[in-house]
User: Which sequence fits this backbone?
């Protein structure tokens, strides 16, 4: 637990200049996500499978790690995002990234977005490649 808290702090989660903290993590070969709005004291939770067990795991992890790091122990409300459900057995990571991006942008869901899955895969791959090919520290 201490290591998880240390990593979260090291990545700047507790920095007061950030109003939101986003996270994606793995629960038994499956990706889930959360977004904490520090000011509203609200944690949006997203499981692409819409599984109660996974939602319980998200809430438990956020309570044990992030509430402590953010000094919000016992102060967060939790809300499930239920408007997107993965349609296959391999797109959980893509939907986690897409849903977090939509929440941050204030965008609304439309079921036609499911058809964009191949585009989203390529879009996020391109973003990762562009980050990985940037010079680091003046190199």
Assistant:
């Amino acid at each position: 637990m201490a290591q998880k808290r240390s990593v979260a702090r090291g990545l700047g989660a507790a920095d007061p200049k950030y109003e939101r903290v986003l996270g994606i993590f793995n629960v038994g070969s499956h990706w889930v996500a959360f977004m904490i709005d520090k000011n509203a004291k609200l944690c949006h939770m997203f499981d692409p499978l819409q599984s109660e067990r996974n939602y319980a795991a998200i809430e438990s992890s956020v309570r044990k790690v992030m509430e402590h790091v953010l000094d919000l122990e016992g102060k967060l409300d939790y809300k499930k995002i239920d408007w997107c459900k993965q349609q296959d057995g391999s797109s959980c990571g893509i939907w986690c990234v897409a849903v977090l991006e939509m929440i941050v942008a204030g965008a609304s869901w439309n079921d036609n977005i499911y058809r964009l899955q191949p585009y989203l895969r390529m879009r996020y791959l391109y973003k990762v490649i562009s980050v990985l090919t940037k010079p680091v520290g003046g190199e």
The beta strands are 20-26, 31-37, 42-46, 77-81. Residues 14 and 70 are 5 Å apart (CA to CA). The chain has one domain: 2-132.
